[in-house]
Amino acid sequence: MNLKQLEFAVALAEERHFTRAAERCHVVQSALSHQIARLEAELGATLFERLPRQVRITPAGEALLVHARQALAAVERLQQDVAAAVGAIRGTLTLGLISSVPRLDVVELLATFHARHPQVDIRLRQDKSETLLAAVRERQLDFALIGLSRQVALEAVDSHLLLSEELVAVLPAAHGLAGRERLSLHELVDLPLVDLPAGSGARRQTDEAFAALGLPHRVRFETGNMQLLERFVRRGLAIGLVPQSIASTFAGLARVPVSDAPQRNVHAIWSPLPTPATREFLKVLEEALAD
After folding, report:
1. N or C: which end of the chain has fewer CB within 10 A?
2. 255 beta partners
3. What is the pLDDT of residue 90?
4. How far is CA 183 from CA 122, 174, 188, 257, in A?
């Protein structure tokens, strides 16, 4: 067994196709197939089920995948640590991001980091908070910005609370409720609402807040794009529930506190054993928060 075979196995598990896995690893398909077969023979187990148009990983393959990723990550980490010991920060920095992070300019953070460490390959993806949290725990991501309710425990990661704020209702300025000092969720039940997609952490917070009061949460429009959410409200199609910091950027719309709205906590999370690149990025983040 060697690292190249483990790399091929991970690629095949993720691509679910021999041709795509071979292209990803920059080898011909026959070479990748041969190495996977040798690995299976050495382990005495079928790692992948060959189907007509795809590959399906077996339970034995799933077991291998966990350790293969750890081994490959350990080798990459070794190379990065040795480079850092002689003053060179390189390798990769993989980050995850929810659809909106108030009061933090992620692009500016990455630009500052890149200027200091141009040899680091930066990769960014957007996803749901729960998915990003799992990815950091599994070391598929180095760092992530996520939004969670206070009830969710952050285990197996290091974290920093960036922001804690309640949601407010955003309405057209001419709406009948726009002049109120405060609203309740009861008053929003029969109104058309725009909210984040079902299944997202932020959406689950509002779903649970309505459910706790025995109220239905009827969402007419679902979007993870804050600009689109703003347009739905601005055109009088719906009322939104968003964090105060985001609502403050919607010029010309009314913002009304909601007495029983949930609180949103935004966290930065990273592995308890950060890579050298991650440690340097955390310094950039710390500087930005201190400004």
Report:
1. C
2. 170
3. 80
4. 43, 16, 8, 6
What's the chain's length in residues?
A: 291
Is the pLDDT score of 87 beyond 90? Answer: no
- Six token digits for residue 251: 């010029």
Query: Which residue bears the tokens 């932020």?
Result: 202
DSSP letters for the chain: --HHHHHHHHHHHHH-SHHHHHHHHTS-HHHHHHHHHHHHHHHTS--EEE-SS-EEE-HHHHHHHHHHHHHHHHHHHHHHHHHHHTT---EEEEEEE-S--TT--HHHHHHHHHHH-TTEEEEEEE--HHHHHHHHHTTS-SEEEEEE-TTS---SSEEEEEEEEEEEEEEETTSTTTT-S-B-GGGGTTS-EEEPPTTSHHHHHHHHHHHHTT----EEEE-S-HHHHHHHHHTTS-EEEEEHHHHTTSTTEEEEEBTTPPEEEEEEEE-SS--HHHHHHHHHHHHHHH-
Per-residue pLDDT, averaged over 260-277, amounts to: 88
pTM: 0.65
Amino acid at 44: G
What local confidence, expressed as pLDDT, does residue 221 receive? 96
Q: What is the mean pLDDT of the segment spanning 32-37? A: 94
pLDDT in tens, 123-175: 999 988 888 999 999 888 999 999 887 667 788 899 999 888 888 999 999 99
- Fold (CATH) for 87-158+271-290: D-Maltodextrin-Binding Protein; domain 2 (3.40.190)
